[in-house]
Amino acid sequence: MILSLPEVELVNGNLEAYQRAIDEMIAVRESSRSLLDFASHHWHAVEPGRPFARGKAIEAIAHHLEAVESGQIRKLLINVPPGFTKSMMTSVFFPAWIWGPRDKPWAKFIAWSYADQLTIRDNRRCRQIVECEEYRRRWGRRVKIVGGKEEQSGFDLAGDQNAKMRFDTDRRGFKLASSVGGAGTGERADFLIIDDPHSVLGAESDTVRERTIQWFAETLPTRVNDQGKSAIIVIMQRIHANDVSGHILAHDLGFEHLLVEMEYEPDHPARIAMKPSTIGYMDWRTTPGELAWPERFSRDAVEDLKKTLRSWGGSYAESGQLRQWPHARGGGMFKRGDFRIVNEVPRGGVARRGWDLAASTDNKAAYTVGVKMRRVDGQIFIEDVRRFRGSPAEVDAAIVQCAQEDGNECVQDIPQDPGQAGKAQRMHLAEKLHGRRFSITPETGSKEDRARPFASQAESGNVALMLAHWNDPFLAEAEAFPAGAFKDQIDACSRAYHGLLREPERAVPGAPILIGGG
């Protein structure tokens, strides 16, 4: 326990002891208030040969973790490039900070990664902090580690496998190391930490990646102590469009999202789609290309890292791990810059609304989408996008409503289900669309093949979007296609575009009803 100032004054006027006491008081006060300061004061316990590097990026991570501790944020997703001290802050310093400085030695933690060697490594580091001399002196009365080999100099963990996988506090808190789908299924905790659930190689396998997402969606939520209070933290670099982060963002699972890309992009697709921050956080950078952590990753270091990533994974690896926005290898089919934004669409030409149907209200399901497209003098304009999840009756109602709003200049172009179900669907919709122009035809070929003619027009700068609220979600899906979690809007565009090619470029109000063609 540190001395109080009056007691220090009695140490024979020893100024050195007085200064040590002052430094100790400052360290305790700063560590109690700030996770980042706590990490700074105890960094030497785990990294004695490397100085602690502060910076805005690591500050952002620390502030969001502090909000998790205080209960402001219960579900947190952090996407940062490799080397941003994410495991240290989240799985090493954060538990030790909560037990000691925040006086919660009863808190329980389970940490998962794609390999248990990584979480075991971080368990060792966390325990080294709790058992270091400074930590014991400052918070030893609040938290003690029980079990294992207790020695004044710390724990000898090398030969103690149980101590590597799990260690407990004397107040029944614990930290358990596991791997995705591995041990820990019988335990529940107050803080669940998922640190890099995918390996770079594993994410390339659809089977491995989807098994990880299934574990995240179906098993992980059952491991919390309290469904209303326990916290889930996911911190990872993006390595595939359909990774755990992609699943969280696509299905709007209620996670606060902290995005720190290596080089600042004001119009980053993920940032544009973000909801306002619970803690009022905004990226501090203002200049495109500004580095996230120049204190550790200089411009030369970043360029060298880009070169290394491109040497094997091409732009895909660079985009995922540095931009935190992965695309299919070889590049996506669409680029955000392919599309122009216009304030109004010229009249005339021909119009068609392409539909992609998904009659389900499940928040995991695909969306029903209707895209209204117009061709005028060879130019393609997307006038409107309707995107929603609904029951079969709600989907029918939306098609009828759009047909009424669009008028008979615009054909409602609807995909037909295969087999007998498609024939019944066709008759059902035909009855509801009396007096309206429509076409119901089967889909042929893959979504990618159907999209290529439309993508060629976009790449040529021949496609414009009407300025509207749906622009950003549309562009985000287009940029991720075909690797993104959803393809509904692009599929609807493909149908509308192919339909426009079959019509002469003129609007014909009151034209005959079209069934099965058009």
Beta strands, count: 15
Q: Looking across the biggest beta sheet, what order are the strands in?
A: 3-4-5-2-6-7-1-8
Globally, the shape reads elongated
What is the CATH architecture term of the largest domain?
Answer: 3-Layer(aba) Sandwich
The CATH superfamily label of the largest domain reads P-loop containing nucleotide triphosphate hydrolases
Largest sheet: 8 strands, mixed
Strand content: 15-25%
Coarse structural class: alpha/beta
Distance from N terminus to C terminus (CA atoms, Å) equals 84 Å
Low-confidence stretches: 148-161, 507-518
The name CATH uses for the topology of the largest domain is Rossmann fold
Helix content: 25-40%
Question: What's the Cα radius of gyration?
Answer: 28 Å
DSSP helix count? 17
Return the CATH class of the largest domain.
Answer: Alpha Beta
Folded structure, characterized:
The protein has helices at 5-9, 15-33, 35-42, 56-70, 86-99, 116-130, 133-139, 161-165, 206-219, 244-250, 269-272, 299-323, 392-406, 419-432, 447-459, 471-480, 488-501, and strands at 75-79, 108-113, 145-146, 166-169, 174-179, 191-195, 231-236, 256-259, 339-342, 350-356, 368-376, 379-388, 410-416, 438-442, 463-466. It is α/β, with parallel strands linked by helices. It folds into 2 domains: 57-293, 3-Layer(aba) Sandwich (Rossmann fold), CATH 3.40.50.300; 336-501, Nucleotidyltransferase, domain 5, CATH 3.30.420. β4 (166-169) and β5 (174-179) form a beta hairpin. α2 (15-33) crosses α3 (35-42), α3 (35-42) packs across α5 (86-99) and α4 (56-70) packs parallel to α5 (86-99). Mean pLDDT is 86; it is low at 148-161 and 507-518.
